[in-house]
Amino acid sequence: MQAWMQALRIHQWSKNALIFVPLLTSYQYTQTSQLILVLAGFLSFSLLASSTYIINDIIDLTTDRQHEFKRNRPFANQSLSIRQGVLVAVGLILMALTLAVNLSLNFAICECIYLLLTLAYSFIFKRWIYVETLVLAFLYTLRIIAGGYLINVDISPWLLVFSIFVFSSLACMKRCIELKMLDPSCATQLVDRGYHISDLKFLLSYGIICSCAAIMTLLLYINNPEVIAQYYRPQLLWPLTALISAWILFIWFKALRAEVGYDPVIFAIKDKISLISIILMIALLLLSHSNDYSFLP
Questions:
Q1: Same-domain pairing of 138 and 257
Q2: Do 88 and 150 share a domain, yes or no?
Q3: Cα distance from N-terminal residue to C-terminal residue, the chain
Q4: Is residue 266 pLDDT above 90, yes or no?
Q5: How far is it, in rounded angstroms, from Cα 242 to Cα 248?
Q6: Helix or strand or coil: residue 292?
Q7: By CB distance 3.0 to 4.6 Å, which of 18, 39, 203, 257 could disulfide with 143?
Q8: Taking the model in full, what pTM does it have?
Q9: What mean pLDDT do residues 139-157 have?
Q10: Is residue 294 predicted with pLDDT exceeding 50?
Q11: What is the mean pLDDT of the chain?
Q12: Are residues 122 and 197 in the same domain?
C-alpha cells in the first residue's frame, strides 16, 4: 500500500487546488452546489494527475534508476511492476474522464488537453530547454482554466498572465535547484534533460525576470480603473500585492540557499511562512471584495 501511495503521489494532489481559484475570484465559494462541483472536479483532476505520474515513472524508468533520489520510486526499485502500473494508470484515466464528462464537457476537454500535453512533455518537451518551463507553467494554468469551465465563469486574462509568469518562475527555480545539486566532478548535465551547469546563471536570471513580470502584472491590474470599480475596498489590493511580492522573493532566497528541497511548489504548501502568507493573501482578496466588514478603515 505504501508503494502505491508513493506511486500515486497523493501529496502532489495539493497542486490541483488551483481548480478552486476561479471559485474564490468569482466569490461563489458560499454556494454549496458550486463548492461540491469543484470538489468533484478536484477529485477527477487528481486521479488524472496520478495516472500521469505513473506513466511518467514508467517512461523514465532507466534514468530514474541513475538518479540520487528518484531511484527510490516504486517502479525504479521494482516494488511495483510495469504491468501493474499500466493497468492502474488506464483505470485512473477512465475514472477521471468519466467523472469529468458528467461534471462539464469543457472541463473534460481541459483534462484531455492536460493528459495529452503531459504525455507530450514526458516524451518530447522535457528535453527542450526553456520551452519545458513554459509547458509546465501552462499545465498549472490549465488547472485554473479547468476550474473556470467547471463553474461556468470567465477567467480574467490578468489572472492567466500572472499565473504563467509565476509558474514559469517556479519551473526555472526547480531547474536551478537541480543544477545546484549536481556534483561538477561527476556530472555537468541533468540526466535526460538538456540543461548544463553553465545554464544556471541564465535560468536564475530568467526565473527572476518572470517573477518581476508577475509582480508588474499585479501592479498594472490594481491600477486599472475598470478593475478598481469591481472592488468595495480596492485599497486592500496594495498590501495583497506587497505580500505576494514578498513571498516570491522569500521563496527565491530559500531556493538559492538550498532550503527549498526538490520541488518549490511542494515547499510552498508545507512551509509555515508560505502557508501563513497564502492564507493572508486569500483573506485580503476576500475582504477587498466584500462590503460586510464595516470595522475595516
A1: no
A2: yes
A3: 53
A4: no
A5: 10
A6: coil
A7: 18
A8: 0.84
A9: 91
A10: no
A11: 83
A12: no
